[in-house]
Amino acid sequence: MLRFFTAGESHGPCLTAIVEGVPAGFPVDVAAIDHDLWRRQQGHGRGGRMAIEKDEAAVKSGIRWGETLGSPITLVIDNRDWKNWQKKMSPDPADRDPSLAVTRPRPGHADLTGALKYHHDDVRNVLERASARETTARVAVGALAKQLLSPFGIRVMGWVCEIGGIAADHSRLSAEEVFERAESSTVRMADPVAEERIVAAIDQSKKRGDTLGGVVEVVATGLPPGLGSHVHYDRKIDGRLAGALLSLQSAKGVEIGLGFCMARLAGSQVHDEIFFDERARAFVRRTNNAGGTEGGMTSGAPLAVRVAFKPLSTLMSPLHSVDLRSKDEATGAIERSDVCAIPAAAVIAESVVAFELAQAFLEKFGGDSLVEIRRNHQGYLQQIRES
Ligand code: EPS
Q1: Res 387: pLDDT
Q2: CA separation for the pair 139, 4 (Å, rounded)
Q3: What does the pLDDT average to over 37-48?
Q4: Which of 12, 57, 73, 254 has the most beta carbons within 10 angstroms of its beta carbon?
């Protein structure tokens, strides 16, 4: 089974990911991992940290001469900011300095609940790991996952749909066109008119000491029918995608295909009718309202998932809070942060989807090497063509 762990604090020495269950013989381009790490750092609305960091993955195990060995792959991304935090984040008890404690929890962050649950009276003990800096490791893992999917023609693409209630109009573009154009957009979308309004909204939000959330979309193409399964709750691809996406910092909602809109329409308006294309000898649909999943399995149509992210909870004009120790009225602590990280969230969601799909893909076509998996994949596609 493909699985991974991440470790590391936001201002610790590094972030580490260990990916286990990667079969042997897959070519890995580390520069492509670094490119995704770079993409995660971009976007209008990012804060001072991104000027300090230059995220790059160092491969510590599992890859030799550009190919996976079948052993666990360890990726390490150094935090350049660590040099400014060595004492504050030191494991050495001699460095303890109670005057550095953060005691004013920020509404919306993990601060208060984490402090109560783990019995901390210094919120830094919670916020360092709760920080979305952890997604750096998840993007590295996702970039690797994409390289497990690409030999089979599967592509995973993410972009921004809306920020601060201002939505992009992508209705006349194909997924590939949206993706390509969004790559050169400062808010990762393919609508220059909406982009201009959003950049202004982010700038205004910054002036007010406020933050903005938004919605991102991920589309995956080239998927075979049948990843995931209808037979049990924890094998359903929809649930696995939604669970993984909702585990992202600030994520508050996930919808697949028409999603919540479907609830307001009649069955005859939403379900994708089935036809048979004699020439291609394949079942086809003329619509994809289901967003590429039916019965907990990929249908073979493009997967389309959207994720809603709340605005970041670190406000430069902070909200009402209470001091953890004195219980006095206070305002939430101010940490250096971003005004809007939705363009980065699109890259992160893309990475998370890539991992979940790679896991389901290897489950279906599993084997110990690329050669074996290729044979299984081709055999299955032929079986479908002949059925
Ligand atoms: C970061 C994500 C955010 C940033 C962090 C870097 O994390 P959080 O969820 O804690 O707000 O704030 O930057 C800093 C903590 C900093 O010192 O600027 C990321 O995506 O790398």
Answers
A1: 83
A2: 12
A3: 96
A4: 57
- Kindly report whether the global pTM for this prediction surpasses the value 0.85: yes
% of the chain with per-residue pLDDT over 70: 100
Q: Which domains does the chain have, with CATH numbers?
A: 3-257+292-385 (3.60.150.10)
Q: Could you identify the residue written with the tokens 């305002």?
A: 331
Average pLDDT score, the chain? 97
pLDDT of 281 strictly over 90: no
* Cα–ligand 1 centroid distance for 286 (angstroms): 43
What would the pLDDT profile of 95-143 be if each residue is shown by its tens digit?
999 999 999 999 999 999 999 999 999 999 999 999 999 999 999 999 9
Q: Is 250 in the pocket of ligand 1 (CB under 6 A)?
A: no
Which residues contact residue 188 at a Cβ distance below 8 angstroms, ignoring those fewer than 6 apart? 42, 43, 158, 159, 160, 182, 216, 342, 343, 346, 347
Q: For residue 312, which atom of ligand 1 is closest to its CA?
A: 11
Q: Is 338 in the pocket of ligand 1 (CB under 6 A)?
A: yes
Instruction: Give the position, in ligand 1's atom list, of the atom nearest the Cα of 314.
Output: 11
46 lines ligand 1 (CB under 6 A): no
